[in-house]
Design brief:
The protein is an alpha+beta fold. The chain has 2 domains: about 1-45; about 50-200, no CATH class. It is about 40% helix and about 20% strand. It is built from 5 helices and 6 strands, in the order αββαβαβααββ. A 4-stranded mixed β-sheet has the order 3-4-5-6. It has a two-stranded antiparallel ribbon with strand order 1-2. Helix 2 runs antiparallel to helix 5 (about 150-165). The chain is elongated. It starts with a helix and ends in a 12-residue tail after the last strand.
């Protein structure tokens, strides 16, 4: 026969287990509800997209070695350096397209970065015009895959310079880097050690409609 005190102790332990189980279950339920409420209370936000604006791309044409202005509507950031990278990225996307008038592989990812430097800071000179030097940092993969040839390489360089000047008029000079380092040529011919004048690359309006 089980002693009375053991029966009472067993009953107390059983009751405590039931109560603790109920409390644990209640805590788990509330935690689950808070988790669901937290997920519902966080709204899904669409990524911010820059407003579309008209941009003029100076597109190279190998048929006559010209630069043809092409006006497109593009999402352009407010930041000038990001804007410069966006227009150059679209330009190189056109060159990577199957129907390109100047076929060059790589596309937008070939422009690693664009830096804008006041001419006064770059040359130690005083300039009241606010003219800027654009430093275009291309990727090594783009340079390695660029078709060789003086005319082909020069068309790429001049189209980049002219496109920058058409969309950021303060850019009057352009320098090139490849993977962040100076490079002698683009693909064996066109000189990348010099500073290019962006305005010299602009085709006169109506010259190549």
């Amino acid at each position: 026969m089980i002693p009375r005190y053991q029966t009472i102790l067993f009953a107390v332990l059983l009751a405590a287990s039931v109560v603790m189980g109920a409390l644990l279950w209640n805590q788990l339920r509330r935690a689950h509800e808070r988790l669901l409420e937290g997920g519902d209370s966080t709204p899904t936000r669409a990524p911010e997209v820059a407003a579309a604006e008209q941009a003029t791309l100076m597109v190279a044409n190998e048929a006559d070695n010209s630069l043809e202005p092409r006006v497109l509507s593009l999402p352009l950031p407010d930041n000038p350096e990001a804007r410069a990278r966006a227009v150059l990225g679209k330009l190189l996307d056109l060159y990577a397209a199957p129907d390109a008038t100047h076929p060059v592989p790589g596309g937008a990812s070939s422009v690693a970065e664009v830096f804008l430097v006041p001419i006064a800071e770059a040359n130690g000179e005083t300039t009241p015009t606010g003219a800027e030097l654009a430093v275009v940092n291309l990727t090594g993969a783009f340079a390695a895959g660029h078709p060789p040839g003086l005319e082909t390489e020069t068309l790429t360089i001049l189209s980049i310079c002219a496109t920058l000047n058409a969309n950021l008029p303060r850019v009057t000079k352009v320098r090139f880097l490849v993977d962040g380092q100076p490079r002698a040529t683009l693909a064996g011919h066109a000189d990348l050690t010099r500073t290019y004048l962006a305005t010299d690359s602009v085709v006169a309006e109506g010259a190549h409609p």
